[in-house]
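DATA SHEET
Item: assembly model
Revision: 1
Owner: S.N.
Input lines:
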Amino acid sequence: MAGSTVEPTRSAAGVAPSGAAAGYRPSKTLPFVAEFRRQASRRRTQLALGFMVLLPLIILIAFQFESGDDDNGRGEFGSLVSFATSGGLNFTLFTIFVSASFLLVVVVALFCGDTVASEASWGSLRYLLAVPVPRARLLAVKLLVALTYSALALVLLAGTALVIGTLRYGWSPLRSTVAAQLEPGEGLLRLLMVLGYLAVVLLVVAGLAFLLSVITDAALGAVGGAVLLWILSSILDQITALGAIRSFLPTHYSTAWLGLLSTPVQTDDLVRGAVSAICYATLFWGLAFWRFTRKDITS
Amino acid sequence: MRSPFPAARIRRVLPTGRRAVAASVAVALLAAVVVWAVWPDRPGFRAESAMLTVRSGPAGDEPVDLDTTLYLPRDASADRKVPAVLLAHGFGGTKNSVRTDAEDLADRGYAVLTWTARGFGRSGGQIHLDHPDFEVRDAQRLLDWLADRPEIRTDAAGDPRVGVVGGSYGGALALLLAAQDQRVDAIVPLITWNDLSRAFLPESTGAAPTEGVFKSGWAGIFFGGGGNTGSGPAGISGSTAEASEGAPASAGPPSPAPGTGPGTAPGAPTNGGAADPSCGRFAADVCATYLRIAATGRADQAAVDLLRRSSPAGALDRIKAPTLLVQGAADTLFPLGEADANARGIAAGGTPVRVAWFTGGHDGGEGPRTDSDRVKFLTAQWLDHYVAGSGGAPGNTFTFSRIAGFDAMDRGLVATGYRTADYPGLNGESRRDVAVAGPTQRVANPPGRNPAAISSVPFAGSLSSLLGGVAGDIPGQHARFESEPVAEAVDIVGSPTVQIRAASASGEAVLFAKLYDVNPEGAATLPSGLIAPIRLTGLPSSIDAAQPVTVTLPAIVHRVEAGHRLRLVVATSDQAYSTPIEPTVYTVALGDAPVSLPTVSGEPIPTEAALWRWVLVGLLAAIVVGLVVLVAVLRLRHRRQDTSVHPEYADTPLAVRQLRKEYADGFVAVSEVDFEVHPGQVVGLLGPNGAGKTTTLRVLMGLTQPTAGEIYVFGHRLVPGSPVLSRIGALVEGPGFLPHLSGLENLKAYWRATGRPAADAHFEQALEIAGLGSSVHRRVRKYSHGMKQRLAIAQAMLGLPELLVLDEPTDGLDPPQIAEMRRVLQRYATGGRAVLVSSHLLAEVEQTCTHAVVVNKGRIVASGPVEDIVGESPSVLFEVTDPAAARTVLDGLGGVRVLDDSDGNLVVDTNGTARSEVVAELVRAGIGVDRVVPRRRLEDAFLALVGENSRGSGDR
């Protein structure tokens, strides 16, 4: 600090009626782009997104070691595995199929669960609030950015798989044993619908992770907690003795997107799944906002 | 403010007050929901089992014991009579196989009588195949018995209000009973036959059953299941029993244990050990007929007559009870044509008839859930109107369903329901012709029926037949004729017809016509595994001389997608049928007419899924509206926000008024704090650790809500998120940076978050203050504590805020840096700005600040200009050789007081008397003065008020 000087000038030339400093407007604080860049600079963001690109490549390479013994007799949808190399669309579908149940859950939980909790653990959260970034705005921007990154991960995964799958296996119709094969154009549309539904289902994870992120200061707790609860729900969903209660589990409709592969498209479970996911997400986010706008920041 | 006492910590962890209430309410609600969901429903009925002896037989004098159970609604009594339902089971079953359905109906308010038909289970007698004199008369006696029950509603004396429901064997009984006994008010026969001889000896060109091809697969299963003592495939018969319930079969594993199968039940053969081992519990005539047909594969007229006796076909005109006919599309035993014949026969007499098809049946079981729900609904609606007399008249709509694909969720099948205004029959509403082509082909009949093609496997479930997984034709034994891909999808509902020609050296041929759906990849599907057996006689030996014959295929509900082909296969053998055993070669060619497909344009039945769609739309709309309202309310509140300026504090950077912060667990961090910071001041907030300094600053930064009191910044009332916070730069509770960014990037990221113009940030000055040199480009993760601290101070100074709040700013700095920091802060405050510094170090405050506020245990103990507090105190410390003597001397001096006396040190309030004079007095008195130390006020105050130990306020 040696030799430092501070100009004794007042910077409060144009003070607003609200008493804010010149240039400060609550609705301008923490712009989306600023938060996007904050998150983009983080190693975990780069790694997660990078892995989304890498995974299809790894799968593609793995398929090159085809041993020839087909042992994919896992029900009607096991054909997704055997058809994986029949074209770019099928390859993408396979990649989504293997990632949907866990990988994407972890990635979404990472983006949404880490966002507030990590700021709290670094201590930077209190400086953001002292800017002051209004609490609701802080949450809204953080949520939007987290959701944007989650969507980006989904798109990167599917996009990479589609590009390299098409380059390697060609632009072929989408095939499965559950329905007639779909022409590439129609198949692409179905694929987009699958991605859309997956995005909706993952809103539950996003909601849960975000709520935990607001409640706890430990980023690991928020991410891990959301994934653990998701797994718990999946396990309970396997127990048929629970009967009708299972329909209320957030994971109950998580595989309903497979219905999009049949002809005609089975949308009944998709609609129910969407209702369930949106209800849960709204509840979790509502709680998160309610909690965060009232809590004492002690980190 | 951590308390070393576990009790306080535990108290903090434990939920208190509102939170406890909210938590317990949430837990209670959750528990209630779970309990409600899993709580077993209290049955709304009671069941009475009895062994009834009824007299039947041709003369009505042969006693037989029937094992019965009567399910009565709980509130049924002589005063509150209820309508009744006679619920019959399927072939090979017992009264227990329809228990679930009986309970459902009893819950709907019906008295339900179930019984084990004669020849099965614990009932006596022999199997006469729904013989009018035996099984049907048994049922008539049960109607008598019902009429005598006081709880049962009657239409007249001896005439109970009763509906008859049954599947398969029980369904035919319902039809035959309704024909024989006019007391029956309504019937619901499910998946049953019209003509048993045609069902077991079908011939698809319209020939009589004597020319039919024996359906040996199914016949064998039934004969085995119902007959042979101990040798019958009890498991299969058990499964048949399930297939015959109101909610028809499940394709799952058979449920009754082998021991409960017919023929093996204890005491079952009432005629003792005289049972013929080849007949089991079958009546002798039935048994003999079966043996005769099975041996030859042909039926004589006597056999056909016996089967006709057990068929509703001849008695339909006598049925006056409104009839709901439910038939399964996945049924190779009793295909849709059986219900069609029943419907036409009954409707001809003017009796109300309604037909419904579902995707189950003897092969398909209950079908998908939507289908079994629909069947249950239709049954209940029918009974409610025609038996109970409640509910509107059921419409005349014809409903059917088609398999739409696999359910992605539970891997079952999904069916889409359709309805049309009127029952179109098997010929559809319109027809669509598809030309198939293929050369004349020679096909061989395998000797000894082996190997034979497989079209369906009884009880294999619907999956196999739908997927075409089991369907297989043997090379050389079938002729193929294929169409071009169809341009648009065809919805086949009904019986397709095809035309073929055949030639045979023997003049006779048994052939099987099947219509496959072939997808573009070449995979062929045989809808429902249904095939049309044909027996042709008088054939020429040359195909050129052969006349075309029209074959009516079994009715199907199937959609042929656009781009798929139709494949007509004419095969010589099938495992399900009895074919000639001699090897022969036939010649097969197409006829003149194309394949004619019946079509029905049904309107999809809206399901609850449609409701969900509206729920989704409603939900989204509610969320949007909710968000809009929320934003509007927040805007309104924002507009109404108090922007008034407290005139008294308008020019005061900070005024804290009676601030109090009490945590939820009752801990009081700040009990009352009151101070002001004026422009140009550097105010030190001095106090020991835990005095409440940091809590005060946290409230000041809007991180924590105060319990009471106000804070004004330039006259603006400060609440969390107040815009006026933008005029405060802060370092509270240590630095907080993004560890993966460099120092400079952190500052820039922070400033971007403020949304203010970059020019206002004055990065250069801030960096100069931080004095990090080139380290500013290193990641913060690598910084030492002091470097982070300096960067944090720089961050607080970004934008040169008018009030700078620094919490322990010198923490981690080395002495030269501390000295520099002092200068920086003093200079900072000169331009009308103000600085608030918290510290627990007396010296720091003394050297840096113009004013000081001393807090302890959440209260202010002293405040004012540092000179006032730190300046010379009237008290002086004297270290003397003889304290006792010195005390005497000092007491003698006017106005001088000794405040303290310890270890030879005297603290003396000179009260205006010059120190030199006091010293002179002491020396004059011969007392040696070793030291004279002027005391300072701040220290006094600090020690006197704060105490020598610096225990935190958290320890109170």
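QC remark: Residues 1-15, 227-273, 462-469, 948-956 of chain B have pLDDT under 50 and may be disordered.
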